[in-house]
Design a protein that fits this description.
alpha/beta
Length: 174
């Protein structure tokens, strides 16, 4: 019995250690989320300032920060196999988390059509943005998928890199 408990503790410690190591290069917890400008799959300009509470005109909002609504930014690449496995969990997250805005942000893609096909294959109904190298640099994206949960004050409240279950996404976004 003791060896079984010891094995579980060792496995949990190993898992937590690997998770910590993977996330070391990401933005720090409680740091301000960088502002960004991206393009939607429909070709419209999207500013991170649009994540502010409804009713505030976009022109009156400084773009130095993201604030107003809890938001999950999910960075992916259309060639990423882990993204293909993990992204369907966004459907469940969005359905069970009414106060959370979810955005999938494509990086390292060849064309908007490639991203559209990838999203269509997964039957995702979350807004998709076409990211750029500046956004990847600002958010310290090193691998895919990477996601950040941003609180209502525009600060990073959770982050992760790699596959996440629906439960893992849900717990981090609470």
């Amino acid at each position: 019995m003791k060896s079984w408990i010891l094995s579980i503790l060792l496995a949990a410690s190993l898992f937590l250690g690997i998770s910590w190591y993977k996330e070391c290069g990401l933005l720090a917890q409680a740091s301000a989320a960088p502002a960004f400008i991206a393009v939607t799959l429909q070709g419209e300009l999207f500013r991170s300032a649009q994540l502010l509470e409804r009713g505030i005109p976009d022109q009156q909002v400084p773009e130095q920060q993201i604030q107003g609504q809890k938001t999950l930014l999910y960075f992916f690449a259309p060639w990423c196999g882990i993204c293909r496995l993990s992204m369907p969990n966004l459907k469940y997250l969005q359905a069970d988390n009414e106060g959370l805005a979810v955005y999938a942000i494509a990086l390292q893609y060849d064309s908007a059509e490639q991203v559209s096909e990838f999203i269509a294959d997964l039957d995702l109904q979350v807004p998709v943005l076409l990211g750029n190298q500046q956004m990847a640099t600002d958010y310290q994206i090193q691998a895919f998928p990477t996601y950040y949960v941003i609180d209502e004050n525009g600060h990073i409240s959770a982050k992760s890199l790699g596959y996440s279950t629906a439960l893992g996404l849900w717990l981090r976004s609470r």
